[in-house]
Design goal:
Layout lengths: L1 H15 L23 E4 L2 E5 L15 E5 L2 E4 L5 H20 L11 E4 L5 E6 L12 H8 L2 E3 L6 E3 L5 E7 L1 H5 L25 E9 L5 E9 L7 E7 L6 H5 L6 H6 L16 H18 L15 H8 L62 E7 L29 E5 L15 E5 L7 E2 L3 E3 L4 H14 L24
Parallel strand pairs: 13-16
Antiparallel strand pairs: 1-4, 2-3, 4-17, 5-6, 7-8, 9-12, 10-11, 13-14, 14-15
């Protein structure tokens, strides 16, 4: 009987898995090519010596080079601009309006919220973005819902967006903790040493972040500890106010006339193509999460495996900025501040008090200067850029040499010094030394500055052959920064709601 059963099983498996004449030939998945993300260039895998290669006696820098390797990834060719970040703000604004249009307090139009599928079966409630907001001819209730996200400036009397309401809620699955053996749900898998008896009664405590908005409208973030029971214990919830701090220009330069930038830099179309500033590390991360979900929603990619957008690690950033070149200290090839034609290669402070020498007083439009050999713009100067890496004096030496990253997700209760994150590239206000691509710096993760912005990356999922081919093509272009023709991004659509990654 057992022999007969085995024969039936073998026969059925042979048919369902494609056979192979009795040989094990493997089960292959359907191949696919990852589409090139809009506005991004492919940074191919490679290795280099990161960190200063030689001693700089003038600035007191010591050589700290370390050999590392990084896998391929997509990177924004330009820093995130005001116009691009404003799309995020309007997305959140529109989601709040739609929530209120569905609220009985504002008329309760059920068409703005989907709670059932086509068959009438209940689904997780979510906003209906196919139903447009009645901007032109709203009724009384709709008008109240729309007006509720604005406020009147008590000084000028102008209607303006209520920045305090621009809160984005999202959830992140902590896969790194989930993968660690000490947090396995099955006690037998926590320690593979069979000489040690399994303790089935052991209670594993795990910490997770959660957030809520209190009765006064303030965001409260707390880190809780609880017994590990299931996968949802690794799901962290965040609520971030995502509106840039427009007052950074005044606070960073108290003895200067910078009020005009505070009033107009983010809101005026004059500065649409300038890099967004006044954005914290926490806000930059929220943007990355939103950008991932927006891509899935807008282009129907829910059934396609895509890597999430994220901030670059410090090693990825330096490798990309220096174009994988050990002998290159800046994002451009030479160690001088001007090209052979006498033009500046980036936006920084060329002389004592002379900000205009390079053509700009403050920031410059993204992509105003030539790209590096990887097709990336403004990697040295313009605005310093957030990375995902937590600050450590030892830098890359405290991390592995393959895709190195030192990461620490500080709890609200942690000492402030543990909330420092690495920024790279220097900015428009820095002397040439500090815009070098091998110089490190840091800022607190909740701080907002007039000289810090960011760009996103996304891990590349393509084949090795495609990666190598693209790398060769880039080298032949010699840093032209050109990319294949892209489809234009459409206007914002979607909802600020929970996102599982």
């Amino acid at each position: 009987m057992a022999v007969a059963a085995m024969s039936i099983l073998t026969s059925s498996c042979s048919k369902s898995l494609g056979g192979g004449g009795g040989e094990v030939t493997g089960v292959r998945g359907r191949s696919w090519n990852e589409p090139q993300p809009y506005g991004m260039v492919l940074i191919t895998r490679g290795s280099m010596q990161v960190g200063a290669q030689q001693q700089d006696s003038l600035w007191g820098d010591l050589p700290e080079a370390k050999g590392i390797s990084v896998d391929a990834f997509w990177m924004d060719e330009k820093e995130v601009s005001n116009a691009v970040y404003r799309q995020f703000v309007y997305y959140v604004r529109d989601s709040i309006i739609r929530e209120r249009l569905a609220d009985p307090a504002y008329g309760g139009n059920e068409e703005y919220k989907i709670e059932e599928d086509r068959n009438g079966d209940p689904v997780t409630p979510h906003l209906n973005w196919a139903k447009p907001i009645p901007w032109r001819k709203p009724n009384e209730d709709e008008q109240r819902a729309i007006e509720s996200v604005y406020r009147v400036d008590p000084i000028t009397g102008k209607k303006m967006l209520d920045a305090r309401q621009m809160n984005y809620r999202y959830e992140v699955f902590d896969y790194k903790s989930y993968a660690q053996r000490r947090y396995r749900l099955d006690p037998e898998r926590r320690n593979l040493n069979t000489d040690i008896p399994t303790n089935y009664d052991e209670q594993i405590i795990i910490s997770k972040d959660t957030a809520y908005i209190d009765d006064d409208g303030n965001i409260q973030r707390i880190t809780i500890e609880r017994p590990l029971t299931n996968e949802f214990d690794f799901l962290n919830t965040y609520i971030i106010n995502i509106y840039p701090d427009t007052t950074v220009w005044v606070n960073d330069f108290t003895n200067a006339y910078t009020e005009q930038y505070a009033r107009y830099y983010f809101s005026s179309p004059i500065y649409d193509d300038y890099p967004v500033v006044g954005v914290s590390w926490e806000q930059a991360n929220a943007f990355c999460v939103w950008r991932t979900e927006y891509l899935r929603q807008s282009y129907g990619m829910r059934g396609i495996e895509i890597e999430p957008f994220r901030l670059p690690t410090e090693a990825e950033w330096e490798y990309a900025a220096r174009a994988g070149n050990n002998d290159q200290s800046y994002s451009w090839k030479t160690d001088v501040e001007r090209s052979a034609k006498g033009c500046f290669d980036g936006n920084f402070k060329p002389g004592d008090g002379n900000y205009s020498k390079d053509g700009y007083i403050i920031t410059s439009p993204v992509g105003a200067y030539s790209s590096n050999d990887f097709g990336l713009y403004d990697m040295s100067g313009n605005v310093a850029e957030w990375t995902s890496t937590a600050w450590s004096e030892s830098g890359v030496h405290s991390a592995a040499d393959i895709n190195p990253d030192y990461n620490y997700n500080a709890a609200k209760e942690d000492p402030y010094r543990l909330k420092r994150k690495v920024i790279r590239g220097g900015s428009w206000k820095d002397a040439s030394h500090f815009v070098r691509a091998d110089v490190r710096s840091w800022e607190y993760q909740n701080e907002q500055r007039s000289f810090i912005g960011f760009r996103c990356v996304r891990t590349y999922l393509g084949s090795q052959k495609a990666s190598i081919k693209t790398n060769s093509a880039k080298k032949s272009k010699k840093g032209s920064g050109s990319t294949p023709k892209q489809r234009p991004q459409r206007s914002a659509a979607g909802g600020a709601r929970s996102v599982r990654r």
